[in-house]
Amino acid sequence: MSRGVTEGWVRESFASSREFRLPYVRDHEVLARRVRDALLDGPGFALVTGTPLATMSTGQAQEFGVSMLLHLGEPLPQGRGADTALGWLVRDEGVSAHTDDRRFHEDAYTSKSRGYLHLHNDRAVRPFGREPDVIALFTHRRARQDGASVLVDGLTLYRLVRAEFPDLLDRLSTPFAFDRRHVTPPGESPVVWAPVFEQADGRIRVRCNVKRLETGAELAGEPLPPDRRAALDALGRVLARPELRVTALLEDGDCLVIDDRRVLHGRRPTRTTFHGYSSLEATGGFGHSRDVAASWNRTIDALDVLLVHWPAVHVFGSSSGAIVALDLLARHPERLRLVVADQPPCAALLPDPVERGFFEEVYEVFRADGLAAAARHFVAGIGGTLKPMPDPAGLPPRAAEMIGRLNANFPVFMEHELRQFTSYVPDEAALAAVCDRLVLAAGLETRGHLPYRPAAALADRLGGKVTEFPGGHSGYTDAPEEFGQRLLEVLSSR
Q: Which structural domains are found in the chain, ordered by start?
């Protein structure tokens, strides 16, 4: 064990995972003493390896997990009603951490999702009216890809906040409202009040769940005053630092035991895949609006993955992607450092009714005369600023395959995205509040044409101006080197 971890640790405190691994022994009383030593006089967690769990059925594994740790203390049930169990199953049951309207899903059991789990400790929300001291995660069947556990030392978090934001530490030592709608005991309040940091038994104790703190203030009907908001922002910035995080990818039969009073835990997503049209197989389009919402939720989950490594990110989006970027900035500004929205086709912002109705006109041509006619009408209407895609025959095999998929998906675009995206109305009030993080861009060759005008209209409403890039409506393929250089200049200027 590395020296000094009792007083606080960061990722570099451990030369390898061997320093916090404990081999399983059949004498569970002996095992419990070793685990307790790691929790109280070590880093606050231990990874027990080599348990026989992987050879058992799910029911047997649940029973074994409870019996193995009985010597650590009284096991606490989780769940409500028929779902109550001592061995709670953490597995993908199709749950999303976000609702169809793109909000954080306050009522969801995110342990039943495959997405990213934010750093937290369970005791922060007093689940089902109980306050756990120790959390244990057994791995019966590991995810096919990733799903690694992420740990942060609450004691280190406390000391960094105290050193860097001493004037805000007192705020974090007073009670905050935590949203516990997903684990509210029958007849009790969905809000529980507690400080983030407190002294107990001569030790610093932590209660942290930034997501539940944000929604808790809303639920309690007590908006955070500026000083308390500043304290939570500082907490979030420190918590986002990648050097604080230890990751552990559990194998079948592993058991991660955590002092829930000290150590925060989270999880990287399982089997995260980033999908765009270049990797989407044509399947006849979206079957329901829920599919679009699910796609958005995957986008948010993907952003969460990035935020494991970076506290805030730069986002570039072009055309329909620029609309996604605008909406992301309006809804989740705390996650983004800078957004470059290149030619968002927000036709609803245009004063000319003919231009506002152009995309509906393209769709009608598509329905009446087919894709080729609609494509010609579209290109003509945007002033020829969209250059044709290259002939796949002259491209390397991988690029030719991508062009083939893009062509195959044009009917999906016409039917399910053209009108839906171009009718989008940006939230100007939300964007105005963060306009210092927004660059509205357009291609130099689109000046005077339809693709340029929505960006110019929105920039004017927000009191800014358009930043011009080389090329036309698809400048990144028209002049990739020049476009990339210009994008780097813009990103580095903020």
A: 5-267 (3.60.130.10), 312-492 (3.40.50.1820)
Classify residue 339 as left (phi > 0), alpha (psi -120 to 50) or beta.
beta
What one-character-per-residue DSSP string does 231-274 give? HHHHHHHHHT-GGG-EEE-PPTT-EEEEETTTEEEEEPPBS---
| Predicted local confidence at residue 379, as pLDDT | 85
- CA dist 203 to 40, 44, 262, 294, 480, Å? 10, 12, 9, 43, 57
Query: What is the model's pLDDT at position 381?
Result: 85
pLDDT of residue 17: 87
Q: Rounded CA gap, 290 and 208, in Å?
A: 32
Write the CA distances from 77 to 89, 108, 206, 371, integer angstroms. 12, 18, 22, 58
Q: What pLDDT shows up at residue 26?
A: 95
pTM, rounded to two decimals = 0.59
CA 201 to chain centre: 36
Over residues 176-235, the pLDDT tens digits come to 999 998 888 888 999 999 999 999 888 999 999 988 898 898 889 988 899 999 999 899
Please give the Cα distance from 425 to 461 (Å, whole number): 13
Q: How far apart are CA 34 and CA 46, in angstroms?
A: 9
Retrieve residue 321's tokens. Answer: 């992607």
Residue 8 neighbours by CB under 8 Å, 6+ apart: 153, 155, 156, 159
Q: Take residue 485 and report the two structure tokens written for it.
A: 């250089």
pLDDT per residue as tens digits for the range 463-478? 999 999 999 998 888 8
Percent composition of the chain: helix, strand, coil (DSSP 3-state, to 5): 50, 15, 35
d(C-alpha 78, C-alpha 84), whole Å: 5
The rounded distance, in Å, linking the Cα atoms of 477 and 315 is 18
CA neighbor of 282 nearest in space, from 416, 423, 474: 416
d(CA 158, CA 155): 5
> How many helices and strands, by DSSP H and E, does the chain display?
18, 16
Q: Tokens 């003919």 correspond to what residue?
A: 354
Average pLDDT score over residue span 248-268: 92
The pLDDT value given to residue 161: 95
